[in-house]
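In this supplementary section we document a worked example of the pipeline. Step one takes a protein sequence of length 391 as its only input; no multiple sequence alignment statistics are reported here. Step two produces a three-dimensional model, which step three serialises into structure tokens for compact storage. The input and output of this example are shown verbatim.
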Amino acid sequence: MKTSQAFFMAFSSLVSNKLRAFLTMLGMIIGVGAVIAMISLMDGMIGYTMGSFSDMGADTISVSLMGKGSKVLTDEQMYEFVDAHGEDFSALSPSSSLQTAVRYGEQTMKSETVSGVSESYAGIQGLTVDSGRFLAYADMLSRSKVCVIGTYVCKELFDGADPVGKRIRIGADSYTVIGLLQEKGDSTKYSMDDCIYAPYTLIGRASGSAQPTGYTLKMTDAENSTKAQQELEDFLYNFYHDKECYMVTNMASLLDIMDDMIGVMKKILVGIAGISLLVAGIGIMNIMLVSVSERTREIGIRKSLGAKQKDIMKQFVIEAAVLSTIGGGIGVAIGGIATTALGNVIGMSCSPSAKAVAVAFGVSAGIGLLFGYMPAKRAARLNPIDALRSE
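The serialised model returned by step three reads:
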């Protein structure tokens, strides 16, 4: 029997039992759609998460000083360390913070974090000024009461108008806004646009700390982050002799950890969705066994007319493959639609992953062949005389 004849007979069988065929395919449709949606959404989430962490500086190392012990690490000492390790570090920004009210006219932000940073911070974190300028070295030396704000702060205090040159009150002092940053988030509370930057030499004193409470260092090469982190930790330990006095955070290491965690979650979700494909395969095997039982007499007639075992096997294996492939194709379409729709609901730009489509469709077709083999083999082994006696 030609393969084309086997396909024709398979389609004819499915058409003659539309409802049964659809119910059998339903498990495959749901399984394939779930696999595609889950993998695609996880890929979108991975991209979004990694992008967010990268925006925070994948090539940066942050140092938080706990304020313990009697020894005080000065900014001059940290600058000397960076200069001595120029092959690993390219920039440094001391940091301080102040939690206070910020006001402009009648508008007030009751509890806003003002970050004290150096002129290098914009380059370290990839900040771009939309209007005005960023902080300068002269601002650090003179402790100028100037600041740069994000778009969220601009929206809250100035209703989106250009704030450059305006004076705002930070706590009890008056600061001149010298720059407005480009939007990096969505201009909402706690986003990357919810920020105010001022000279660290000024904010440190306002917060009651003579020295910075932290440092942000930019690495020359993120690939050597482990070596750079070790050198920094060795320097800090040799200075404090107590690991409780500081905390070092390597953004590259955090990215690796996050990637591993999301990868595990992805495998778990795919495994759960894969169970539905397995159940769908069992459903196909069950319905094919029923089909063999119903068509025993037909098999006997075909064998008595000269059909070989391989012809009977081909017929039923192809029928099972057609059933799973059609279900897989519909599942691919539904999975693609579901991915886009769910992405819009959770506010992420997600599209069906080509890898997910290939894997899900390939597995669905493979399951059809695998679970269709046993019923096909049973049909092929039927004795023609016994099959003809069947009612």
